[in-house]
Every structure is written in C-alpha cells, then in structure tokens.
Amino acid sequence: MTNSEFTRADGRATDQLRSVRITRGFTSNPAGSVLVEFGNTRVMCTASVEEGVPRFKRDSGEGWLTAEYSMLPAATHERMPRESMRGKVKGRTHEISRLVGRSLRAAVDLSQLGENTIQLDCDVLQADGGTRTAAITGAYVALADAIAVLKKRGVVPGEPLRAPVAAVSVGVIDGHVCLDLPYEEDSRAEVDMNVVMTEEGRFVEIQGTGEHAEFDRDQLNELLDVATKGCKELIAAQKAALEG
Amino acid sequence: MTNSEFTRADGRATDQLRSVRITRGFTSNPAGSVLVEFGNTRVMCTASVEEGVPRFKRDSGEGWLTAEYSMLPAATHERMPRESMRGKVKGRTHEISRLVGRSLRAAVDLSQLGENTIQLDCDVLQADGGTRTAAITGAYVALADAIAVLKKRGVVPGEPLRAPVAAVSVGVIDGHVCLDLPYEEDSRAEVDMNVVMTEEGRFVEIQGTGEHAEFDRDQLNELLDVATKGCKELIAAQKAALEG
Amino acid sequence: MTNSEFTRADGRATDQLRSVRITRGFTSNPAGSVLVEFGNTRVMCTASVEEGVPRFKRDSGEGWLTAEYSMLPAATHERMPRESMRGKVKGRTHEISRLVGRSLRAAVDLSQLGENTIQLDCDVLQADGGTRTAAITGAYVALADAIAVLKKRGVVPGEPLRAPVAAVSVGVIDGHVCLDLPYEEDSRAEVDMNVVMTEEGRFVEIQGTGEHAEFDRDQLNELLDVATKGCKELIAAQKAALEG
Amino acid sequence: MTNSEFTRADGRATDQLRSVRITRGFTSNPAGSVLVEFGNTRVMCTASVEEGVPRFKRDSGEGWLTAEYSMLPAATHERMPRESMRGKVKGRTHEISRLVGRSLRAAVDLSQLGENTIQLDCDVLQADGGTRTAAITGAYVALADAIAVLKKRGVVPGEPLRAPVAAVSVGVIDGHVCLDLPYEEDSRAEVDMNVVMTEEGRFVEIQGTGEHAEFDRDQLNELLDVATKGCKELIAAQKAALEG
Amino acid sequence: MTNSEFTRADGRATDQLRSVRITRGFTSNPAGSVLVEFGNTRVMCTASVEEGVPRFKRDSGEGWLTAEYSMLPAATHERMPRESMRGKVKGRTHEISRLVGRSLRAAVDLSQLGENTIQLDCDVLQADGGTRTAAITGAYVALADAIAVLKKRGVVPGEPLRAPVAAVSVGVIDGHVCLDLPYEEDSRAEVDMNVVMTEEGRFVEIQGTGEHAEFDRDQLNELLDVATKGCKELIAAQKAALEG
Amino acid sequence: MTNSEFTRADGRATDQLRSVRITRGFTSNPAGSVLVEFGNTRVMCTASVEEGVPRFKRDSGEGWLTAEYSMLPAATHERMPRESMRGKVKGRTHEISRLVGRSLRAAVDLSQLGENTIQLDCDVLQADGGTRTAAITGAYVALADAIAVLKKRGVVPGEPLRAPVAAVSVGVIDGHVCLDLPYEEDSRAEVDMNVVMTEEGRFVEIQGTGEHAEFDRDQLNELLDVATKGCKELIAAQKAALEG
C-alpha cells in the first residue's frame, strides 16, 4: 500500500496533530489548572503547591515535583472500575504517573524552587488515545501558572521554570508512520511510541514498543522525525496559551 | 440579630439558590454525561449502562442502579491525597456514594428497567459546598439521558424513569436559616441539613446534623420550608435542561 | 387498613419501645463498658481513655472523642464475612461509626476535657434492628463512666459531661408509624428514620430515608413525635442505669 | 526458691485452673453460641453452618471446618487498634485462627459431615491470658451444638462429632511450672506452652516457647503432666455444659 | 508394620538427615548471606544491619532482631501466587516469620548488641519440606556473620552472639518416627513436629501437630529423641561452616 | 574530556558487557529455571506452565504469557522493605513486570501455544544495575526450556518459540556513551536507556530517559549502536546456553 492510498479515519495527514486546545484557569482552587484537549482526549491538569519537601529532599535547599495520573471511570468507551474502590492502583497508572513526573522535572530547575513541592494531578475526563502525552503537554502550562503564583507570593528564590516540554505519540499503522494516534489507531498500531521533547528539540524521554511487530532503525528515524514536528507545534500551542 | 441585619458573604437572600447550570453531553463516552454547577461547585455526573445485574438481582427481571462519588484531589482549597493512592476510601466518600445511590433509586422504577445496570459516577471537579446535593441533582439528568439511550437501543421493556429528584443543602448560620451553603458557610454552620425531594414535594431523604448546636422542631420546620423551595427550583432547572 | 387492625409481630403498641436493658461494668479493662440491649439487639459499648489528642487538635487545650462501630460476624442471621479478613471496611460501617462519633460529641464539652481522647467502641454481639441507635444510647453511659474515671484520676480540668443523648429508630410499616423497629420490620419498612436527641428534646441528628416510598410532611411530623417519646424513655433508662 | 515459698498472685495452687464457666446459647443467631470464661478471660465462640464447601473440597463428599479468632479493641488493658481499620490482620491473629481451626478439626469427622461447612468465630470480649486455649475449649461446645442443629435439619449423613478436645496454657514462672496463666504471669513467664488434648489424653497440638529461657526435657515433662491434668478438668466442664 | 519393613522413598534411615549444605557469602550486599540446603530445600538467609531500634526498644540500650520468611512463587511444585500481588500475606507466612524471629532471638543477647537492629530475611528458592527449619538453621550462620561485621565496625559494645540454635522437623509416617521430612512425607505425615534447640540440647521451641492422628506421650518422647539427634548434627554443620 | 581519558570504575571498555553467565536448571520445580548474571547482578528467572488461559483469552485458541519482577529485600545495598509486608507494590515493580511481559511476548507466537499460560517470574537475588535487562535476557532461556517441556508433554500444537530476544542498558556517563551500566554508573548517568532487541536486530522496546540532561539525535544514534552490539553478544550467550 502506498502513502497515496492510505487514509486515516479522521481524514488527517499522517504527520498532522489533532486539533489542540489549552484552557488555563479551568478550576480555581489549585495554583495552576488547565484543561488540555487533543481531539476528543480531554485531561484536567492541575498544579498544587505545598510548602516543604518530602523527607529525602529535606534540608537540601531544593524543591520537589511529583505527579499523579488517573482516569475517571467513565472516561473510556467501556466504563472501568474505579481504582480507589478496587483498593489497587493499576500498573499502567503507576507507570504513567512516573513518566509525567520525570518529564516535568525536566522543565523545572529544582535548585531555584526553594523547599517547595509542586504536585501535578492529571485526571482524564475523556479518553481517546494519547492521554499521557496530552497530560504532559497540559501539565507544563499548569506548572508555569503555579510557579508564577509562587513567585508572586515571594517564596521562590530563583527562576525555576525552564523552557517548555511537550509530548506526543507516534505509531505505525498499516505500515505508515502516523502522528498523534486516537484510540482507534492506537489499539491496532504495529508500533507505538511516546516522545517527550524540549523546545530545542532534545529528547527528555522516548518510549517505543513494538506491540504487534518489531521495528528497525529506519522506521525509528521516521517516527522520531514526525514526533519532532508534533512536539514543536505543541510547544507553540503552550506558548500561545501562556501568552494569551 | 434580626434578619434585616444578616447578610450572606455572596449577597444572596437567605432562601436563594446559587446560580445553577446543567450542561448535558459534557463528555461523549457514557450514555449520560452532565456537568452540574451550583455556584463554584462543579460536579461531572455520568451514567453508564451495562447489560446484566449484580448477583443479588439475577433472574429477578429487575434492573439495578448504583453510584460512586469522589473528589478529584485538587478540587478543594487544600489539595487532598488521592484515595486510590492511600489504598483506602474515606468514610465520607462511602457515605455520600450510598446517599446518591439511594436517592436516584427513588427516581427509577427498577421493575421497568429490565436486567440492566446503571452506574452513576459523580466526580467533583471543584468543591465549594453542596457537592453531594449537586451530584444528586445532576445525576438525575444523566440518568434520564442514559435511559433514553437504553430505550432507543430497545433493551428496556417499560418506562423506568420517574419524576425528577433533586437535592439541596440548608443550614443555620448565626441563627439564620439559609439555603444552599457554600463552603465558607457550611464549615461554620450550627446546623447542616441535606434534603432530597421529588417533584411532588415528598421527601426521599433528610439528613440533618447539629454540628455545633442542636436544633428544635421550629427550626426544623423552617429548614424544611426553605429546602422545599430550593428543590422545586432545582427540579425546574432539571426539566429545562432535559427539554433544552 | 386502620390502626385497630394493624398488629406488630411482637405484640407491641406502635409507639412502644422493646424492653431496654443497660448493664454497666460489662467488662473491666476499659474505663467505661456497657452492654445495651434493645430487645434481641445487644451491643457492647466501651469508652477507652488515652492521654493526648490527634494532631489536628494538638495544643488546642481541648480533648477529642471518636467512635468505631462494628458487627461481629455471627451477629446477624446469616453470618457475614469479617471486615478485617476482607481487608475492607464496608461503607455502612464507616457511616455508622461517623454517626456515633458526631452524636456523642454532642454529649461532651471538649473544652472541659483537657487534651485527652475518648475512644468509643460499639461492637454488636447480636443484631435485630436498631443497632446504631442502641450503640448511641449505650455509648452515652459508657462515656459517663469513663469521664468519671478521668475525673477521679484528676486529669480533667472541668465538667465535660453534658446532659444525656439517646437515639431511636422509627419507621413506616404498612402505612403505620412504628417505634424501635426490629430486623423483621426494618427490612420491609417503607420509611426508615433514626433520631438522636438530647434530654431537652432537641435534635442532634435526623436521618430519614424513603426506602420503598417517599414520605410527606405529615408523616414526618408523626415520625418525629413517636421518636421523641422513645428518646425520652431511653434517657430515663440511661439515668436510671447511671444512678443504679 | 522452693515450692512452699512460691505463691501465685491469685492464690491458686500451681496446678489449679482458674474458675471455668461455659454458657451455651449466649446469642441466638448462630447454630452454636457459647461464652467461655477462664477467670477474667471471656471469649464468645460461635459456630455458623453453611451448606456447601470451599472449592478444594468440592465433590469430595466431605465437609469442612474453619476458624477465625479476633480480639475486640477494648479487650486488653490498653486498647489496641482495630484490625479492620488498620487494613491488616496481625500475624498473631492469623496464627491463632489457624491453631483453633486445626484443633477443632481433630474433633470432627469431616467424612461424616456431608458437604457442609462449619465456621467458628472466637471473639475475645475480655483478655486476661489464655485466650487461645479458652477459645478452643469453648469452640468445642459451640461445635457440638451446631452439629446437633445440622442433624436435626437432617443434612448430616453420619456422626461427625468426635470426643471432646480442650486446651490449656502452662508455663514456667520464677522456675515453677504453673497451669492456666493469667496475663500477669504470661507476660513474664520464662517458658510458655499451649497444649491441645483429646479426652483420651492424646495430644492434638503442643506449642512450647522458651520466651526468656530455654527448657530441658525434665521441665517439658512436668509441663505436660500439669497440662494433662488441666485438660481433663476442662473436658469434664465441657461435658457438664453439654449435658446441662 | 515393623521398622525392618519400612523404607523411606529416598532410602534414608528414619533418624537420618538429608544432606546439608551451608554456603556463606552467597550474596554480597547484606552483612550476612547464607544459602542453606536440606536436600532439595534451598533457602537464602540474609542478615541486614540497621543502626537504631524500633520505637518500643528506643532508649533501652538494647538491640532488636526480627525476621521475615517468604517463598518465591515458583519455589513449590505448583506455582503459588505472589503475596505482594495478592495484597495479603498468608497466615502461614506470618506464622513462620514469627517463629524464625523468636528462635533467633534465643541466639543473641540483645543487651550486648547496642541499639542496632538485625533484620533476617529467609527467602525460599526451592521448597521440598522443612523450609522453616532450614531457614532457622541457615539464619544462625547469617546472624553470626552479621554480628562479626558489626563488631569490626566497632558499633557493638559487647558479645551478642550466643551458642548456636538449629531446627529440624520430625514426624510420624505410617506409624514410624522419621527425621527431616521432605515434602512427600510431610504432606502425608500423621504427626508433624518442628523442634528448635540450642547447642546444650535445651528446647527453644516445640511445635507439634497431630495433622491426621493425635499422638501420645511415648510417641512424643521418640519424636524428641530423634529431633535432638538431628539438631546436634545441624549444629555441627553450622560450626563447621563458620570455621570454614 | 576525550574518550582516551575516560575510564570506567571496573576497567571495561565503553562498549563492553560485564561478564555474563546463564545457568539453566537452577531450580527444579518450574518448567524453566535460569540464573542469569550480568556481573554482580543476579536474577533468578523461572517459567511456570499452567493449562488454560485468563478470561480475556478464553476460547481464542491462543495461549498467554505474563511476567512478574521483584527484588528480594536484601538484594540492594541498603535493605528495602518487602512489598508484601507494605501491602503495596511499588510503581517501579509494576512498570518492570509489564516491560518483561511485553518483551517476552515478542519471543513467542501465542497462536502456536494452544490454550496454555506461561508465567515468568524474575526475582532479583542481588542487584547491581541492569536488573530488568538481565531479567529479560534470562527469561528468554527459561521460556525456551518451558516450551520444550510443553512440547514433550504433547500439549503444544505448533512451534511457539521465536528467535531470541535480549535486552541491555546503555547510558551517558560524564558525556560518554557506555554499555551495560552497573549501579554506580546507573545512579549518576545523564541519560539512561534500555533496549530490547531481536536476533535480527529489530527493536522490541526502547525506553530512554534524560535523567539529568536531555539528549539529542546524535547521542541517541550512538546509544543505539552500542546497545545493538550488546544485544548481539547477549543473544550469542543465550544460544550457547541453550545448546549447552
């Protein structure tokens, strides 16, 4: 099958993002609160600020940042049991929470934060693929807002906010490299990859999995090219939102 | 202190609701999905439908309805730890989930539902008092939408939806009976009461607590009068939303 | 059906309590230990005293009171799994524990207690309806005994014990308002209500549920009249036990 | 120190049991319900009957018997946290539950029971040493009553009840072998042993621990002699209760 | 059946141990690390050292020793679910952990240890009966190595190591008393006993269970004779390993 | 710093593996049992076989493979609390278990396996970096042995074993790309990457994280080149072990 014959169910070009919306001030209690939408995927990202740091950081003069990701039970097509009621957090949830935390720590200089902790919460209201990449992308904006609050309060000694970090999924569908997979594509992708990137185009994290087929070096390069294009556009959207 | 001297922080009359908004189709995966707002309190209410019933209802020919209530961690002024991560659901959460379930079972005729289960999820996005009453009020609308979906699918033998059920909080603040308490009032109320009511003005549930002072029969009557007025207005809002 | 035709399975008048027994000093380790019996319902209520208060009360100069309710597995007609073995406490258990705690805090002036904590435990040995109201009624007596112990030890600065608080269930059975429902009535009541009241007849808590039918204002008033009569008789029994 | 100089705090002879009381029909819901008292130790032992057996016994034609032991939180001198609230069952609890189950399975011929399950619950109302041995001794009586109920119902094919099994603690206190230790002795015993025995004087279980000192063969023999005397007296009490 | 006709599946004499191997320095991170083998049973025993003691020992001037036993999921013939994934530790595991801790505390003088804690971990790599007795026997050697490390570091004020403690299983198979039961014998033994003993032949712990038949005093004496022989040989093996 | 000046603590070349040992038949109960060593990292990998498949695969005609990874508490330099005792599995553990499962599913053709389940367990006996990559590499050999057992039993319809899959870590240390990081390097690496690869050099999984610095496309390519060399050597070791 040649590229000219391949069409995506939603009509997008293979290297095209879904429509992206970033709404700041979505709720008012947390220091930063953002609703991020990648097509039908909608994630509420909040950044809460607490004075003090966990024990392993105490008296370090540095701050800390941590993240929790979760899906509301009715976010998916079939309702999923609530993790609090099951009494167990799923491995997938832990894994994504850790990824979001690592990714956003690349966007903050903890030594400039003072002994404050920023807690990110990414709660998926509606899931249609790419929830973890939307979460990272939205969380950066919530983080920026929270740091602005901290600075206004005068509790931050330095300039903790670094240049933007964004994330996008790429995958191989019927042999074609595609950007920003919705659920329908994600569930049948041969290869699935999430890329987290800085504004300068440097990698924060790459996670690629050959779900139904392994991939070679050429495919990897093509996947990374398309992911780089996607992250650049997402970072532009982040900056526009923060200036808006 | 006479009533003429008493003013509420938000300027409302003592028997006045906060502004109420009910948005249907808030998300698209569940059969019913509603965002309900009582002032700054915002609750996402979804109704998911599953064929089959729990074991204790099997072969009864009847359906079942159950509910879960939860707060997002950043919904409150101070962030609260996520229940799934603590590994324990708080007593308050269990208590409200059970109240929502009982209240909405009064709005459905299970014998007309067939052996289907409706699962309500009420997730508080932003909390400013009255989250349980907003949850019940919004859940009725989500339930109505879900039953319409079931009927369209042809899996419902009868007419399971009953007349609306709505809920409101009332309380005694500085000796004055007030309707629909925001957090600031709720946390210092002498008496706190939640009333769940049908369209005909019959009680589904009354829960009144003398948090800082007991209350007598006259105060109870005044509380119920004001709650009745509030529930009637909420039911009008539910009906308007469902016709809209 | 008129009242003259309606008879209760145990032959009681509709506004008559089951026989009530309150046995002080039921066990000897806790500061207060009471066996309370409402007919066949038997609850062991203990009040244990600990110096110090939970963190949120520290350095307040005030004491604290908290309660836990539980059923022994063989208390009910069908044995129920032990909550410790299931690894989960049921919502119903949490709900009742919270109710008992709130109710008894109305019977104690925490500012007079010093920084001491009173822990109430209400363990149901045999269940036949009304376990939560028996628990509240018995716990008051255990609380009174525990405060007497504290005063004898000289660790209580003031007079923390307030006037008695008692609780009773009322309900509508086949259209008739009845007092103090045993299990057989409770399980088929159209309306079920628990009322917690002080000696002066003021309400501490009202929880009414239309389990199988809603109720109107007239029924509510009748339910409250009968509950008031019941609570007065229970308070007389509490006082007799404490003088005995 | 010679025996003539050694006196026990409660004045008993070294080979004397505390006063033993066995009350049948203590509660009415379970098939067997016994309150057993060894001095101040009081344990409620119930035997509940369920048709059917756990999976590993299915289609074996045999029955099953299992046991759970637990302490009420206020049973001990210092209140202990409730295991259901901690979310964890203590190792000691598990250990004793298993001991009670093994011991009572020696008193029942499972091949004569049919595919029925007997669930024993031993809940300590008041603890003063020897709770596990009191539990075993009382559970036998509850078991006998439950089997009688099963036989009356006609669901038991054979004669499952075997001759009595009883248990007692022995220990070394200040170098002296003592029978049936109360808490004060138990907590400072050099050696602590629990012996479970049949009517014919055969051992079902021996558990001896040198808590603060090891013990030799002569001491072991002396401990077993005294335990045998104790178990014989307890079996006489069981038989008297069952005939009563 | 006379002894002359009875043969064990592995050809051993009834009072003969399986081949015993004790490998010190099995892993290098913990202060003591031993692989102990009783025939096909293989247990990794480690002793880790931590400065400080648990709260109940703080400021006592004494140290503490505690133990945890566990089976790897594939250690047994049929794979068993991993306890961490089930979210629950089995009663058997708790019971053995407690036994190992008690037994090894008899091998250490806590008053000579300073405020240090020794944590023993006994992880069964391969199970063929006698895992708890192998664990105790191997843990003594790991403990000795860990104390030597502490002494080298100069943090131990005295001589905490006592004379060796070892453990062995004995049982009755087809009416014959046998030493050191492999799984095949253990699972069908009429009587099963574990004996923990010091070098001087004094008992630390005796746990005997009549699994399928009770036992009398003569059998008990025979069991103890054989166990004593086994423990002496195990202690010789421990000493050889520590000198090696 | 140029490459000529950079030396690794253990003297290896930057693209050199630690010494690798693969021991088959390490224990005898599971169908496959392997001890794999990458330098001081030692992981016991077992493959257990169960007839039948989980519910979501039932009646598919296909088999299933799943994996669990865990660390023994004393595997690390500082002892870590046992997950079963904490009652919670750490996110890191879940994450690695999922990675091992996905990686090994690439080495098996489930449609050829019949409705059998292979359960891999990777238990780290000693940790010195690269435990997850050693686990994957060793698990392939255990898997091969288990499939051979299944084929001998005649329960496998086809040829489920695919060509080998191996995994290795690479990282950037002081600006130099290094292969197979021990703990000392891993903990201070600027970039850390795990690569899972098939015999033909195709990627099964890439997980790269800029822990302390982001990385660009050139570094990524260098990391992948070195990882490819490492995986080829590991696959040679796997094949040698399986032929041995």
TrEMBL record, chains A, B, C, D, E, F:
Domain Exoribonuclease phosphorolytic: 16-146, 164-230
Binding residue positions for phosphate: 92, 130-132
Catalytic activity, as annotated: tRNA(n+1) + phosphate = tRNA(n) + a ribonucleoside 5'-diphosphate
GO molecular function: 3'-5'-RNA exonuclease activity; tRNA binding; tRNA nucleotidyltransferase activity
Gene3D superfamilies per record: GHMP Kinase, N-terminal domain (3.30.230.70)
Keywords, ordered alphabetically: Nucleotidyltransferase, RNA-binding, rRNA processing, Transferase, tRNA processing, tRNA-binding
UniProt keyword Protein biosynthesis, yes or no: no
This protein's record includes keyword RNA-binding: yes
EC number(s) recorded for this UniProt protein: 2.7.7.56
GO biological process, one term: tRNA processing
Quaternary organization: Homohexameric ring arranged as a trimer of dimers.
Family listed: Belongs to the RNase PH family.
HAMAP family: RNase_PH
Described purpose of this protein according to its UniProt entry: Phosphorolytic 3'-5' exoribonuclease that plays an important role in tRNA 3'-end maturation. Removes nucleotide residues following the 3'-CCA terminus of tRNAs; can also add nucleotides to the ends of RNA molecules by using nucleoside diphosphates as substrates, but this may not be physiologically important. Probably plays a role in initiation of 16S rRNA degradation (leading to ribosome degradation) during starvation.
Protein name per the record: Ribonuclease PH
Organism listed in the record: Corynebacterium spheniscorum
